[in-house]
Design a protein that fits this description.
Layout lengths: L3 E5 L3 H12 L3 E6 L21 E3 H10 L5 H7 L3 E4 L4 E5 L2 E2 L9 E4 L2 H15 L2 E5 L1 E7 L4 E8 L2 E6 L2 E4 L7 H7 L7 E4 L4 E8 L9 E4 L10 E8 L3 E8 L9 H9 L5 H6 L3 E2 L4 E3 L4 E4 L11 E3 L5 E2 L7 H19 L7 H24 L12 H17 L3 H11 L11 H9 L13 H10 L5
Parallel strand pairs: 1-2, 1-12, 2-8, 5-15, 12-21
Antiparallel strand pairs: 3-7, 4-7, 5-6, 9-10, 10-11, 13-20, 14-17, 14-18, 14-19, 15-16, 16-17, 20-22
Helix pairs in contact: 1-4, 1-8, 2-8, 8-9, 10-11, 10-12, 11-12
Organism: Streptomyces lienomycini
GO molecular function, one term: monooxygenase activity
Keywords: Monooxygenase, Oxidoreductase, Signal
Amino acid sequence: MSRRAVVVGAGLAGMLAAAVLARAGVEVVVVDRDELPDGPRPRRGLPQGRHAHLLMAGGLSAMEETVPGARLRAALLAAGAHEVSLSSGMLALTPEGWLRRWRREGPTMLTCTRALLDWTVRAAVLGHTRVEVRRAAVVALAGSPERVRGVRVSGPDGEAVLDADLVVDASGRGTRIVPWLDGLGLSGVRTRTVDSGLVNASRLYRVPAGAERFPLTVVHADPYVSRPGRSAMVMPVEGGRWLVSCGGTRGGEPPADPDGFLRYTLDLPDPIVGRLVSGAEPLTDVRLSRSTSNVRHYVDKARKWPEGLVVLGDALGTFNPAYGQGMSVAAFGARVLARELERAGGPDAPGLARRVLRGAARPVDAAWSVAVGQDVLYPGVRGGRPGVADRAVTAYTRRMTRAATGSFAAASALWDVTSMRTPPTRVFHPAAVLAALTGPPLPLLTGPPLTPAEREVLTGLDRTGV
């Protein structure tokens, strides 16, 4: 009898895990409670699906390794995604000032709607591997505290057990992994939640004629001023559109009404986002989401763990989406699964599940430290307070960011970390430390680093009189 794996969740993490397992010669069944759209459209089970998502270079590289032959980057670009250079293709106002745009190559990121990204990955996996997708809800794990042997699913015909040699929980932010484990008699898994109260508000606009090449523009939140964090971004997506996303932590939430949404963008430390969109045609209403907390299920630290069960993606750890890490971390987890499957020789190998968990937890913990280290600084945060170590890292991060406003070496270190090509320890390499200590050799910019043509576009769009 052939070996079978059941993947719970048909989102990004689930489909990447399914691709890995299918390439290993395993029969793969993906189970999802949602009816999946037959095109690049939002789906119910993705609460952040209508808001801004950035696919970093490190994450894209891991995805392409996971689904070789699919040429995901080329497929996304052909479908209308945009490739943005972190060194020259964006306008970014940090809490320490505007970042310069350098005429040197740097890492890139892809921008598109989350619906397009999920659809492209799902189509690539289903087109290049033998993976079956079934619509059903998983209600429990089947097996014992020693080994999981499948899942109990609920569908139109009632409940049934779907047998498997390996179960992968990739069910996302809404995972039921803790009660599922309790049902097997495995309790005591620690969960931590750090919630800044972030609310996201997003709206799609038609890109105005002449503004097609305007840079991605972002005004970052400032966690250092003892006030709610407030931010906004204009990013190009497929279909000649701008996706405009605002974010505000507890006490500084953006509103859902169109006039209030525009006022919110204009009240930021620089009104550039509001000035841009004031002259653009809105295509949708403002959409809100409050599903933004950092949640870590420490299943990798469990004293006892059953064979045959792996947890990946948001089911292992979710992060405030403002930091653009979740999709890349999901891809890193799938890459760990691929590596361990190759070493073990199959999904039922002893110790495989524990090794995958521990390997997948490393990028989760790195992303967690970045997200939580900033979120605990906002007023009203729930679940954490900055400690001595947090304050030391914060002081160094501020110094590094300040240096990056006028130092290519410091900016390069931040780009490498942001792009997720390197771990956060990159900012402690000798050249980066020297750049942080010496500070920016160039003076702070007094405004966004616009070209004359871009300044003309901004002036032509501005209807605010600011």
